[in-house]
Amino acid sequence: MIESPLYQYCLNDLEHIFKKTQTHWHSAKGCRFLMTGGTGFFGKWLLDSFHFINQALSLNATLVVLSRNPNDFLKQHGYLLHYQDLDWLQGDIASFKLEKGPFDYVIHGATQASAAFNQLQPLSMFQTIVPGTHHLLEQCKAQALKGLLYLSSGAVYGRQPDTLSHLEEHFSGGAPALDSVSSTYGEGKRAAELLCQLYHHTYQMPIKIARCFAFVGPYLPMDQHFAIGNFILNALRHERMALTGDGSAVRSYLYVADLCVWLWTILLAGPVAQPINVGSDQAISVLELAALIDRRTNNRGLKVTSTLQSGVSTRYVPSIARAQEKLGLTVSISLEEAIDKTIQFVRHHAGRDLIFSPELAKVAKVFGA
Question: Burial, 123: exposed, middle or buried (Cβ in 10 Å; 0-12, 13-18, 19+)?
């Protein structure tokens, strides 16, 4: 039997998720969960943490995962075949038939958070987000749900003013530009959020909304548009870090174990129809981030390539006051520890079939994995 990589190297993180959420799971005993988007970065962590908690508390709960190609995914992640509390439903988010129910809880996260997909196939991106969400809501409106968690994004806010340190949930002054293809993801998430609110208003569906920002941790793609993943891969390969700008852009990063704590808490105990920012409020510039990763990897010295002129500064940092006040959620794991945990995981798994992408096979040559 192939053991879950998270059980092998992130058991403390799974225990952290369990300890932080265990008081919320009483309502889930014997329940059936449906999840869309269960095969990506978020999904893999939610699957393993669900299984861990289900076993620890003897909940006898079941999680059904919607996937277009479950067989392909299970071939790469064979350990999941041994999880008796997981089931699989093959189908596309825009056309699937709701089977294997009834369901008590739903997590809807079926969207590719991919800048390349957003730019090259914007219509497909929009159709996945908006008609896909509409179809899911139609399929679920007759279910006696206890909660439906929609995984939205901080992209719904559009551009954050440089003078605004943290985005609060009521901010509406920077909506995505309607004349730009790059707005497809953010505007799609806005429209899907509105659909969720309409279904709450019309059918009293118990909608929970998590506006997710930026994250780091095992399973994060290292070769996509996520700066922190790119920097970690660059540092491990002793490559020059490429910055799209002068490094003054400001971000924040929540470790994925804390992310799971927040998502499970919002689903099981969060307020209905009130969006909650999910992320860290601890800001860091992109240049500072690159330097931090350089130090944590004991690299040979920071080497930065800037591809744009200076003076273009953008912020993407949430306020987490609502999450703290309503649910007692906090940032438990520091960015330094989060980076260390991610690096350790990559070093253990680089080049293996269970990990991120073929690009990481190159890392294996460095560490002999």
Answer: exposed
Residue 353 pLDDT level (bands cut at 50, 70, 90): very low
Closest CA to 329 of 273, 272, 257: 257
pLDDT digits (tens, 9 = 90+) for 81-128: 999 999 999 999 999 999 888 999 999 998 765 556 656 778 888 988
Question: Strand 147-153 to strand 62-67: parallel, antiparallel, or no bridges (unpaired)?
Answer: unpaired
Phi, psi (deg, nearest 5) at residue 102: -70, 165
Rg of the chain on CA atoms, in Å: 20
Per residue in 283-298, pLDDT tens?
999 999 999 999 998 8
278 with 254: CB under 8 angstroms? Answer: yes
- Please give the distance of CA 288 from its chain centroid, rounded to a whole number: 23
Give the whole-angstrom CA distance, residue 8 versus residue 13: 11
According to the model, what pLDDT value does residue 1 have? 54
Q: How many domains does the chain have?
A: 1
Decide: pTM greater than 0.85. yes
The two tokens of residue 315 are 């912020």
Q: Which amino acid is at 287?
A: L
Residue 243 lies in a domain: no
Residue 368 included in any domain:
no
The CATH number of whichever domain residue 123 belongs to comes to 3.40.50.720
